[in-house]
Write a structure and sequence with these properties.
Radius of gyration: 37 Å
Helix content: 40-55%
Largest sheet: 4 strands, antiparallel
Shape: rod-shaped
Number of strands: 4
Distance between the termini: 128 Å
Structural class: alpha+beta
Strand order of the largest sheet: 1-2-3-4
């Protein structure tokens, strides 16, 4: 018996070859899709990590500015105990002095009550890092009585 190319045995062989080629394409496609998905997940994780690092830096700057504002109030109380006419100052702190990478700046204002000479308000405006556009600024006010400091003299 002579087989020609239209015989079912030859057709089956062609189909097998085509199926093998299709399987090879599928085998390459599946790892490629997995690689793309894993890269997308890694990219999102890196993006989230970057956001968290920025948030931590802002929190650190907020704490530093808060400590500077409190220290400035204590400084003002100390100065008022020695000189009652102390009106405030701009206190610039170098990075070495505050243990950070950036300098800090605090503006101390003494607001006196016109009706009561012994009653004042200490207002501090702390900026950390100083002179940077993305700084943290804390403004605090403390009521204070001069009689508390003058008794120490």
């Amino acid at each position: 018996m002579i087989l020609n190319k239209c015989h079912p045995v030859f057709i089956c062989k062609k189909r097998r070859k085509n199926n093998r080629l299709n399987r090879r394409g599928t085998i390459v496609l599946i790892p490629m899709v997995c690689l793309i998905l894993s890269l997308a997940v890694i990219g999102e994780l890196l993006k989230q990590s970057s956001i968290e690092i920025k948030q931590l830096k802002k929190e650190q700057q907020y704490l530093q500015a808060s400590w500077l504002a409190d220290a400035a109030a204590q400084r003002a109380v100390g100065k008022l105990s020695h000189q009652e006419n102390y009106a405030g100052e701009t206190w610039v702190l170098p990075p070495e002095e505050i243990g950070g990478r950036f300098p800090g700046e605090v503006i101390i204002e003494i607001m006196r009550d016109k009706q009561n000479d012994k009653s004042i308000t200490i207002r501090t405006q702390a900026s950390y890092p100083a002179k940077v556009t993305e700084r943290v600024r804390i403004v605090r006010e403390w009521p204070f009585k001069l009689s508390q400091t003058s008794s120490r003299n």
